[in-house]
Amino acid sequence: MNFFIKILMVVSISAFLNGCADGKRLIPGADARKYPPNPELRVKKNIEEGRGFRLNDAIKKGRGGGNFEFASSNELWRASLDIIDFMPLASANYSGGIVITDWYSENNPNEFIKISIRFLTNEIRSDAVDIKLFYKKCTNEIQCTISEKSDGEIVRELKKKILKTAAVYKEQNKDKNFKEYKGFDLNKRD
Hints:
The protein is an alpha+beta fold. It has six helices and five strands; from the N terminus they run αααααβββββα. The protein has a five-stranded antiparallel β-sheet with strand order 1-2-3-4-5, with helices on one face. A hairpin with a 5-residue loop joins strand 4 and strand 5.
């Protein structure tokens, strides 16, 4: 009886595993027909498809406690900070995706503006940033009224300038970060 139960379990498990395959291979990407037998060709194919790995890049990323260079390589972030660099910042949180300036007044001591820029995506497109502009008007130091203008001309111009500057930064980065892959000499055999 014990032998019969073991046979039944093996058959059940085999049927279950075979049913899980759904007519496909259990291990995705394990079809040897899709990959060349020569290791050098496989490496070249993987790198061309973006599945490559460079040891130097891994070593550089492994230094320190985090990747702090990403904020400076994000074009929208850099463009936003460059455009509003004349204003003092109250908060700039890259991981939270927000920049808030402090109250700023150029000539009139009773009128101030404050800008809040929230990043909705890292892609350079028209809906990538949400900009809010706050006005503060004071009759004296104690009585101030604050109003928000999120659809005014200044907000549109600010967004347009940030997107244009970010596009310029992206174009400059594309040229700077391009590394030609030299690959292997496929004709050379050892």
